[in-house]
Every structure is written in C-alpha cells, then in structure tokens.
Specification:
This protein is an alpha/beta fold. The protein has three domains: 25-162, 3-Layer(aba) Sandwich (Cytidine Deaminase, domain 2), CATH 3.40.140.20; 188-262 and 323-379, AICAR transformylase, duplication domain (Cytidine Deaminase, domain 2, 3-Layer(aba) Sandwich), CATH 3.40.140; 271-308. It contains 13 helices and 13 strands. The chain has helices spanning 34-54, 78-83, 93-103, 122-129, 143-150, 207-221, 246-262, 266-269, 279-289, 295-298, 316-323, 341-348, 363-373, and strands at 25-29, 58-63, 66-72, 112-116, 133-138, 158-162, 171-176, 179-184, 227-232, 235-241, 329-333, 351-356, 376-379. The strands form three sheets. It has a six-stranded mixed β-sheet. A five-stranded mixed β-sheet has the order 10-9-11-12-13, with helices on both faces. A two-stranded antiparallel ribbon has the order 7-8. Strand 11 (329-333), helix 12 and strand 12 form a beta-alpha-beta unit. Helix 3 (93-103) runs parallel beside helix 4 and helix 12 (341-348) runs parallel beside helix 13 (363-373). It is globular. The two termini are 24 Å apart.
Amino acid sequence: MELKYGCNPNQKPSSVYVKNGELPIEVLNGKPGYINLLDAFNGWQLVKELKASCGLPAATSFKHVSPAGASIGRPLSDTLRKIYFTGDGELSPLACAYARARGADRMSSYGDFIALSDECDESTAKLIQVEVSDGVIAPGYTEKALEILKSKRKGTYCIIKIDENYSPAPVETKDVFGVTFEQGRNELKINAELLKNIVTENKNIPPDKMEDLIISLITLKYTQSNSVCYVKDGQAIGIGAGQQSRIHCTRLAGQKADNWYLRQSPEVLGLQFVDNIRRPDRDNAIDVYISDDSEEVLAEGVWQNIFKTKPKEFTREAKKAWLATNTAVALGSDAFFPFGDNIERAHRSGVEYIAEPGGSIRDDNVIDTCNKYGIAMAFTGIRLFHH
C-alpha cells in the first residue's frame, strides 16, 4: 500500500507491505499515513490482548506510537460521564471503553488514532464523531457506525478494518540506518501468574486490583519505553512514555493521574462554560484551571470568553486535599525501579498496588519504601521494553 509520505513530508517514497500473503487490513475510508498505521497496529495489539485477558471490550487512544489512554468497557459513573462529556445517551460496553480511553488524558488524545477490540457500533461511533481524531481500526463496523464515521473530516476520516484472526510471523525485522535488526516477537502472556511473587509485607492484592495491574502491564507492553502506567477501575489514568529516566516516567504519569482525578473535583464539576465553546478550548481551560498557572484563565478579560461566571480560585491547599482522597490506584512499570523516590511519588497519587520486574541492586530500598506506606508490590521478573 502506497502512503502519502513517511514520518515527515520529505521522507518519500513510503509504503507498507508484507513479505508473504496479503496485508491484514482493508481501508474502508480515507488514506492512512505512516504514523497512522504505526499507531493502528500497536493499538490493535493492545486492545486485542486486553479483551483476551479481561473478557470485556477494550479501546485505546494512541498518539505517536504510545497510548494516551486504554481501558476495558466497564460502565461509567455519573461523574465519569460528566468529565468525559458523553451526554445522556445509552452507551454500549465498547463505547464506555472508548470514553474512558479518550477521557484519561484529553489533551494528549487530541487527534488520536483509535483502536477497538470489537465491531464498532453506533454508540461508539457517535462518541468518536464529535472528537478530533485521525482514524480508527477495528475488526468490523455496523452499517450505521460506518455511515457516521464516514461523515467525519469532510468524508476523509480514516477507517480501517483488520482481520482479527491475523497472526504475524514469530520473528520480526526492522531496518535502521540501512541495518536490519531481527528478534522474536514479544508474545509474553500477561496474566495473574506474573503477580504471584509479592515481595512486600502487605501481600493482599484483591482480584480487581490484580486486573488493574494486568491492564497496566499490557498497556506498557505497547508503550514506548521507558514507561510507567497508573490504572484505576479498569482504565489507565496516567501514562508516562518515552522518558530517559524512570523517575521522570513516574512523575509524568503521576501528574496525568492527578489531573484525571482533579477533573472530578467539585470545583471543576461546577464550572459553567459559555455556550458553544469549542471542545478543545474547554479541555485546555480545565487543564490550565487545575494547574499552578490557573491565573491565566482567571485573569480579567480572559475568563469571560470561557466561563459564564468567574470561577473561584482552586487553591493549592484545596487541590492537595482533594487528591488525598484518591486511593487504591495500581501502578505498573516496564522495568525495575532503581530508587525508592519512584515509590514516594507514586504514593502521592494514591498508589497502593505495584507491579515491576525487580532486579535492581536497590530492590531492598524500593521494598522498604513500599512497606513504609503499606503498598503491596509484586515482582514480575519480566521487562517490557518497547521500541
């Protein structure tokens, strides 16, 4: 399949192909680009594995070959429906999964490529219709869903159907600087067996938290390394991807998890926006309002363009008090934590359960820090780097 160009417009010619057989995809609408397909194929693997592991429809929102969000299709609370702006209509389990995946980090999901584990239904298509997105990959589409999606982006929205039974070769190759790399595909099955080695004093990881840890590890398997993933109630709430330092992964993902929870605060839920505000402008205003730069949207002459009435300041003390009510968060890491500072930062975002490979020369320090806060941590013994 010929593509418009590669990663950048100057990288031509560009195409995708398989060495044997046919491409496992059918483009139903639009024309995917090089990065679109990288997102599509990584995202499809993620949701397919989440569905197989958890038994529920799954969705992910991908940007630049890492997920901004990923989730299984658990029902949404009234609060989540409000912060995800889903409206009052009935939501299928698949639609719930996408609302969660998109809503985890709305700024990063802007212009996403979506992957769905199941046939895209009308309920899910209606959610996708109103969001800024580049395309979607799924094993199929209902007639009504396809009609809705084809109306996006003046009829150019990228819609890809993938053969859900496609199985790639066990050995994969990649060319870099004219040199071909070869390795076995990462076919590791992520399940509860990986979480049996609980090394902390607290050894109680309830079944639903086991599932959250599994979701975090599956998400990390398809996230550019280094990476850390916070999960709560079946959805990723903060993903720190592509950082050179483990602590920067933990801080980045932790800040995203904090933002997700701050959006559920009474202060944010009470914001009254002006009529017909654009969705990205509203999302950006919320992110600034809950940040340390909130005066930018509260300044005279600025808030009137965003809010119907001037919101009260969301003080640092009020934010800290609200964040202290976030508990039972699960955290996965794609490689070992080298220092206890990662645990200190994770604890600030409500983390009570951790899965990481172990194997650091400072494992004792990391375990001691977990014990200080009563955190239960399992050593998986498996690294999940992805490049």
